[in-house]
Each structure stands twice: as C-alpha cells, then as structure tokens.
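no rush on this but wanted to send it before i forget. theres a chain ive been looking at and ive put its sequence and its fold in token form underneath. please have a look and point out which stretches look like helix strand or loop to you. thanks a lot i owe you, the record is right below:
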Amino acid sequence: MPRKIIHLDLDAFFCAVEALRDPALHGKPFAVGGRPEYRGVVSSASYAARKYGVRSAMPTGRALQLCPDLILVLGRHTQYSKYSRQVMSHLHNFAHAVQQISIDEAFIDVSDLRAPGEETARKLQSCIWEDLRLPCSLGVATSKLVAKIANNVGKATAKNEGPPMAITVVPPGEEAAFLAPLPITELWGVGPKTGESLRSLGIETIGDLAAWPEAELVGRFGKHGEDLARRARGIDSRAVAPERGAKSISHEVTYAQDVADEDQLKRTIMRLSDNVGRRLRRAELRAATVKIKLRWSDFTTLTRQVTLPEPTDQDAVIYEAAVQLLQANWRPGRPVRLIGVGTMNLTDTATQLRLWETGTQRGQRLQETLDTLRDRYGRDAIQRAFVVEAPATSKLSDMGIARSGADASGDAGTRGEHDDPETASERR
C-alpha cells in the first residue's frame, strides 16, 4: 500500500502566537524580530507585512524602510515553545510516527489509518485551529520529499488574504507529474551552486532533470547526481523518524455538546484508557501516575492525578484510577466540555515476576490476548459490553481526540471533528 505522509507547517507561527496575545495585531503589518539599532533581523512577518516585501531573515532596518508603519514585536521564545509542544501533542494523537524538524514544522506518517490522507489532514488542521487558534498548512503525499514540496506549493499559491491554511495533496503515482513543471530550486539538494550548474546544461525544471539519463548525472555530479535523478522522479523512501523519550501519554476529547451524564463520561474514560494503555504497551512503557483533565462549559479547566501502588500499562487499572478521580472532582449533573485521561512518570522497567500468578498477571495475559486479536482483526473486533451499549452520541465519531500532557483539545462535529486514529479512522 502507498504510504501516507503529511508535512505540517504552521503559518507565520511567531506572528500567530503574538496575535493571540494581542488581538489588536490581527490584520496589521507587524513583525517579530530584533531592534534595528542592535542590527536585529526579522524572525517572522505577518501576512499584511509581507505585502510590503517584509520577509524573515531580513534586517529589521530594511523592513522598516519597506514598511514605515511596521509594528515591531520582540520575540518571546518561551511562549513559542509552549505552543509548539501543544501542536506536536495533536500530531501524536493522529500518528505513531512524528518527526519534528523545527519549532513550527513536522512530518507524520498516517499510513496505518484507513482514512484518506486528505481527510486526516483536514481533521488535523481543524483540530489545531479550533483548540489553539493557530493556522497551519499541510502537504500530503507518499513521501517526505513530495509532501514538503506540495506544502510549499500550496502555501505559495493560496489566494487567502491572511494565512494560507492550505492543504495540497499529491495522489499516489502522480509524484513525477506534479514535480515536473516546478523550478529545480524546489528540489531538495539543489542549492545556488548546483542550480547554476544544472541551468548551464539547460535544466530549468524538475521535469527537465528527470528526463536526463541518470548515468550522465552521476558522471557529472557523482553520488549527488544519483540522488538528484531519484528525487526528480519523486522517489523518496526515507521513514518518518519517531520521537524518543516520551514523558507522558494521554488522550482527550472535546464533546460536540457538553455532557452531564455520568455513564457517558465513564464510557468515554474507558475508551480513552484503552487508547492510553495500548500506546503504553506499544512503547513498552509503564506509568506510575494516572491523571484526568476536565473542562467545564465555561472553559474552566482542572487536572488531577494519583500515584499508583506500582507502574502499569493495563487499561483496566488506568480506567479505575481515572474514574476515581472523576468521582472525586465532578459534581453529578455538571456539564463537561472536555475530558482527558493521561499517564506520567513513565518507565520501561518490567513488573517484577512473582512466585505465583496474581490477578494483575492474569489481567496482563488477558490484555495481551486482546491486543493480539485487535491487531489481527481490527480495533473494533472486540469491545467491552459497557462501551458497545453506549448511545451513538458517545462514540468517538462524535468526539475530538488530542494526545500528550499538554493542555490541548479539539472541537468535534461541524467544528473540526477528529476521530481517534486507532478506532474511528479505521472503521470500514
């Protein structure tokens, strides 16, 4: 099956964060950067400023010449890092393989999801916008190379006055045709020097490059020529390298309508606990702490946690701890907008073997059997009766999901529904 790789790029990220802090900046020509008297440079320019020719890496003094009314904002990198972590937490909900390549850019591999790549990209874009109010653009293709270039093209050709919010898809088999008319400078590995050498041969577009015999390119450029020939045809087999050393694993949902029914909240907790437990087992981790997150209808949010007697990766143990936290912190009948289940204090240390089989060990063996069956026959092949009997409004198709310990969520329904990647997106 063709891979489904998504490249995400946050649109004018630093400026977008500053506009959240100060809404008066919306639509104004402003830039994040250093002061001109200290020979500062522009780190990020708003789209209104870009109309005047202001660009990142431009000296601030030059930017002020181009746009005398430019508003200069000093950078707050702690805040940018905070928002970046929240964005990346959403990516982890949609994919097991996430490769962050900068503070505002990442690849994810969603090949294991049944949903088309474009559908997943739209859900992800909507999720990040609804939760964080950060615009982003995405490219979807069968490789990192083409997904990245697709995103560049989509952003450059977007007709929006403000952020592009573009989604550009290159279907399997159309990689070479998509790349062919683009200038060779769009291709990875073609810098100014290589570009000049290629143009001296009459090679102006990626299609021109693809038409040249590979042997001749290798003769002129060595191993680099072989790479150029392959990339020009859209061939790129590099994997999305997942992050290591997770500090927490969690899932959360934002209901399309606030929920005040205790059974429905418990059913949601059970599904979330199953997802968290499965992630722990796949990563060969156990958690010593379970936490829940609750957001009321007025957007007030609280988190509560409990330390377990011993680390666990079992769904049932996570569920029981989360339900106890719910009962201790939720007043019956109070509407809930968002609910989340998470784990922290992760370790890869195996549970000590005991001299005799205990209930915990029996539970682990049962869990391993369930995982095997679900991997073989699908995530919904075996369901707990408590969940199966749930009304339709509590199913994950009516929820948004977000991952990580960050304070992240996404609205569902018509406001950017995004299903759990291991359940709803894989439904037939």
